[in-house]
Amino acid sequence: MNAFSALPVREIVAAPIDDERRGWPFSMAPVAQLLRDGLELTELTILVGENGVGKSTIIEAVAMAYGLSAEGGSTNERPSDRPTESRLHEHLALIRGIRQSRWGYFVRAETMHGLLTYLEEHPGADAPYHELSHGQAFNALLDQKLVHMAGRGGFLVLDEPEAGLSFMSQITLANQIGGLRDEGIQVLMATHSPILAAIPGAQIVELDETGFCRREWKDLMSVALYRRFLDDPGYFGLE
Q1: Rounded to the nearest 5 degrees, what angle is found at the Cα of 86, between the Cα atoms of 148 and 220?
Q2: How big is the CA angle at 111 (ends 200 and 75), to the nearest 5 degrees?
Q3: Which residues of 53-200 form beta strands (DSSP E)?
Q4: How many other C-beta atoms are found inside a 10 Å radius of the C-beta of residue 185?
Q5: How many alpha carbons lie under 13 Å from residue 92 in its C-beta half-sphere?
Q6: In the prediction, which pLDDT does 181 show?
Q7: Cα 220 versus chain centre, distance
Q8: What is the b/e burial string over 164-175, where b = at least 16 CB atoms within 10 angstroms of the residue's CB?
Q9: Whole-angstrom distance, CA of residue 154 vs CA of residue 9
Q10: Beta bridge partners of residue 13, listed in sequence order
Q11: For residues 107 and 111, what is the distance between their CA atoms, to the nearest angstrom?
């Protein structure tokens, strides 16, 4: 671990609290491994894996441990006070870098509609988000927040941002995220998209029912499955 890292978050570890860790989400192998071994982050860390293995649960908990709302938004935005999250964030501690940037933003596909409504209803709304398609609204939101974060650094957390984005929009987003290093913005992202997982220089962490490990893009299960499907859709029963 680099003690002189300037990243907003250089490592995720278990918080030193005396509390029971039984049942969900602690019963999931990736969560148990995270609490046992911790996870060092890079400028861009990408979590991949099948539905239900804990990607979004971990992403949400890290965002909350940073001080962001579980529904999405910045440290100052609270689109909803309804508790829907797990208790995992209470069991995580974030080891900060020497830069100590406090700015952050969390965007998650499943609650984006509520976040956009919140932004439209408050003074200084960036755009009429609900007049745009899902993909256009996401791009507009991210553009506005990145403009705000540019030059000041920060921590951007994205949960399945590819939802609603076309192939070319995903390519655009991948290039956009790949360029954030120059702005001092650290990214933690969960995705099913092989396109987003292909961003050069990313640390890719693959989760499954046994835990998690670092992978090369070419070795990801999702990449293998997409290749097989494009080569022969009938292999998956489509006739």
Answers
A1: 70
A2: 75
A3: 73-74, 92-96, 104-108, 154-159, 185-190
A4: 26
A5: 29
A6: 81
A7: 18
A8: ebeeebbeebbe
A9: 9
A10: 93
A11: 8
- 133 domain-assigned: yes
Question: What pLDDT sits at residue 209?
Answer: 96
Rounded Cα distance, 233 and 86, in Å: 37
Judge whether 4 lies within some domain: no
> Would you say 89 and 14 are in contact if contact means Cβ atoms under 8 Å apart?
no
The answer, yes or no, to whether the previous bond of 25 is cis (omega within 30 of 0) is yes
Q: State the pLDDT at residue 228.
A: 93
**Residue 1 falls inside a structural domain:** no
CATH number of the domain residue 148 falls in? 3.40.50
| Domain range enclosing 122 | 9-236
For the chain, what's the residue count? Answer: 239
What are the mean pLDDT values of the chain's consecutive 10-residue runs (239 residues total)? Answer: 76 90 93 97 96 94 91 59 72 84 76 58 57 64 63 84 87 88 89 96 97 97 93 84
The predicted pLDDT at position 227 comes to 94
Beta strands (DSSP E) in the chain are: 9-14, 39-40, 44-49, 73-74, 92-96, 104-108, 154-159, 185-190, 203-208, 211-215
- For residue 2, is it within any domain? no
Q: What pLDDT, on a 0 to 100 scale, did the predictor assign at position 57?
A: 94
68-99 burial code (b ≥16 CB/10 A, e <16)? bbbbbbbbebebbeeeebbebbebbebbbbee
Question: How many structural domains comprise the chain?
Answer: 1
